[in-house]
Specification:
Helix content is 25%, strand content 22%. By secondary structure, the protein is of the alpha/beta class. The chain has a six-stranded mixed β-sheet with strand order 1-4-3-2-5-6, with helices on one face.
Length: 128
């Protein structure tokens, strides 16, 4: 589930129901936190390696700000550009999706299967 009113970077917008048939990796991240920045290289690699075709892995970073000054779209966009992220990024600037998923920290990774059922969850770093 992704609220439709949230802004996106690197893509016009995505809906989870339209991703059926492909695995989806959703990672909540704050690009000012070292723990989130360290996972960015892995996400970039997985996006490049497994995105092929309509049934390839869809990597989505959900930017969920920890610091108040990063809750502005212009700042978030600069952070995404500085991190050289070219896969889809959802800006969850008011932590709406963060609260739906009941996250407790950054980063937090959810892997959904082709049927969009959750098949893996990993809080924090590691488990690559």
């Amino acid at each position: 589930m992704i609220p439709t009113a949230l802004p996106w970077i690197n893509v016009a917008g995505l809906r989870m129901d339209q991703q059926r048939g492909r695995p989806v990796l959703l990672e909540f991240s704050d690009l000012t936190r070292p723990s989130s920045l360290r996972t960015t290289a892995y996400l970039r690699h997985w996006h490049e390696r497994y995105r092929g075709g309509e049934d390839g892995l869809r990597v989505i970073t959900v930017f969920a700000p920890w610091l108040p000054f990063t809750a502005e779209q212009a700042v978030a966009t600069e952070l995404v550009e500085a991190a050289q992220i070219d896969h889809p990024v959802l800006l969850d600037l008011e932590l709406r999706l963060w609260q739906i998923y009941e996250n407790r920290g950054w980063p937090c990774r959810y892997l959904f299967g082709r049927d969009l059922k959750l098949c893996d969850f990993h809080p924090g770093e590691g488990g690559y």
